[in-house]
Amino acid sequence: MADYDVKPLITADEIATQIDAIAAKINENFKDTKKLIVVGLLRGSFVFIADLARKLTVPVEVDFMVASSYGDSTESSRNVRIVKDLDGQIHGKDVLLVEDIIDTGYTLSEVVRLLKTRDPNRLEICTLLNKPSRREVDIPIDYCGFDIPDEFVVGYGIDYAQNNRNLPFIGTVHFHGE
Ligand SMILES: O=P(O)(O)OC[C@H]1O[C@H](OP(=O)(O)OP(=O)(O)O)[C@H](O)[C@@H]1O
Ligand SMILES: Nc1nc2[nH]cnc2c(=O)[nH]1
């Protein structure tokens, strides 16, 4: 049995409403694009990407990167491993980088640094969750679903030690005895 409980923080309905609002802004801001390359940062963002992509009305291509820095811990190792790179080219393309959560900012800053070396035409950042109080590396965010407090969260694609990604809502992790 898990040695922690998950307390609801953001409901599935609240997430859906915010995704509608974010998608409307992206559709407006990229209305003249020939094609928007939606880059999903796995694994945590797989549910968010699936829901967001279906609300986009501009021409879209989807590609994925896998990055990892937390392992089975609730603290970042600050050592970002690019486990899988993009399959396609982004030179001269319009790119939307989609992340589930920005915490210290290390993961995104490393991925943005890498993608910028490939000279995209535009590179914008979308995150479902943001923990501003935890930031160690500054990252400009173009689209954000929710600012959340300094708590470890799971659900809606986001894991603790690979568990809980299947929860339809976002919840906070509370270890027994803490
Ligand atoms: O801003 P940071 O402090 O870098 O944290 C954010 C990153 O942490 C999580 O990834 P994780 O390394 O746990 O991999 P996962 O996406 O496979 O769960 C999350 O998905 C973000 O990518
Ligand atoms: N699962 C999970 N991963 C994270 N990575 C950075 N912050 C978090 C968090 O709150 N929960």
TrEMBL record:
<comment type="similarity">
    <text>Belongs to the purine/pyrimidine phosphoribosyltransferase family.</text>
</comment>
<dbReference type="GO" id="GO:0052657">
    <property type="term" value="F:guanine phosphoribosyltransferase activity"/>
</dbReference>
<dbReference type="GO" id="GO:0005829">
    <property type="term" value="C:cytosol"/>
</dbReference>
<keyword id="KW-0808">Transferase</keyword>
<keyword id="KW-0660">Purine salvage</keyword>
<dbReference type="GO" id="GO:0004422">
    <property type="term" value="F:hypoxanthine phosphoribosyltransferase activity"/>
</dbReference>
<dbReference type="InterPro" id="IPR050408">
    <property type="entry name" value="HGPRT"/>
</dbReference>
<dbReference type="GO" id="GO:0032263">
    <property type="term" value="P:GMP salvage"/>
</dbReference>
<dbReference type="InterPro" id="IPR005904">
    <property type="entry name" value="Hxn_phspho_trans"/>
</dbReference>
<comment type="pathway">
    <text>Purine metabolism; IMP biosynthesis via salvage pathway; IMP from hypoxanthine: step 1/1.</text>
</comment>
<dbReference type="Pfam" id="PF00156">
    <property type="entry name" value="Pribosyltran"/>
</dbReference>
<protein>
    <recommendedName>
        <fullName>Hypoxanthine phosphoribosyltransferase</fullName>
        <ecNumber>2.4.2.8</ecNumber>
    </recommendedName>
</protein>
<feature type="domain" description="Phosphoribosyltransferase">
    <location>
        <begin position="14"/>
        <end position="160"/>
    </location>
</feature>
<keyword id="KW-0460">Magnesium</keyword>
<dbReference type="GO" id="GO:0046100">
    <property type="term" value="P:hypoxanthine metabolic process"/>
</dbReference>
<dbReference type="GO" id="GO:0000166">
    <property type="term" value="F:nucleotide binding"/>
</dbReference>
<dbReference type="GO" id="GO:0006178">
    <property type="term" value="P:guanine salvage"/>
</dbReference>
<dbReference type="GO" id="GO:0006166">
    <property type="term" value="P:purine ribonucleoside salvage"/>
</dbReference>
<dbReference type="InterPro" id="IPR000836">
    <property type="entry name" value="PRTase_dom"/>
</dbReference>
<dbReference type="GO" id="GO:0032264">
    <property type="term" value="P:IMP salvage"/>
</dbReference>
<keyword id="KW-0963">Cytoplasm</keyword>
<dbReference type="GO" id="GO:0000287">
    <property type="term" value="F:magnesium ion binding"/>
</dbReference>
<dbReference type="InterPro" id="IPR029057">
    <property type="entry name" value="PRTase-like"/>
</dbReference>
<keyword id="KW-0479">Metal-binding</keyword>
<keyword id="KW-0547">Nucleotide-binding</keyword>
<keyword id="KW-0328">Glycosyltransferase</keyword>
